[in-house]
Amino acid sequence: MTTIAIVGLGVVGGSFAKALKQKPLSDECVLAIDSDQETLDKALADGVIEEGESHNQTILQRADLVIICLYPEALKNFVQSHKSEFKKGAILTDVTGVKGALMANMEKSLPKQVDFIFGHPMAGRESKGYAYADGAIFQGANYVITPRPENQLANIEKVKKRFERLGFKRISIVTPEKHDEMIAFTSQLCHAIAVSLINSDHPERETASFVGDSYRDLTRIAKINAPLWTELFLENKEALLNAMADFEKQFVAMKHALVTENGCELEEMFQESTERRQRLEEADTKLNQL
Amino acid sequence: MTTIAIVGLGVVGGSFAKALKQKPLSDECVLAIDSDQETLDKALADGVIEEGESHNQTILQRADLVIICLYPEALKNFVQSHKSEFKKGAILTDVTGVKGALMANMEKSLPKQVDFIFGHPMAGRESKGYAYADGAIFQGANYVITPRPENQLANIEKVKKRFERLGFKRISIVTPEKHDEMIAFTSQLCHAIAVSLINSDHPERETASFVGDSYRDLTRIAKINAPLWTELFLENKEALLNAMADFEKQFVAMKHALVTENGCELEEMFQESTERRQRLEEADTKLNQL
Question: How far apart are CA A86 and CA A69, in angstroms?
Answer without folding.
Answer: 16
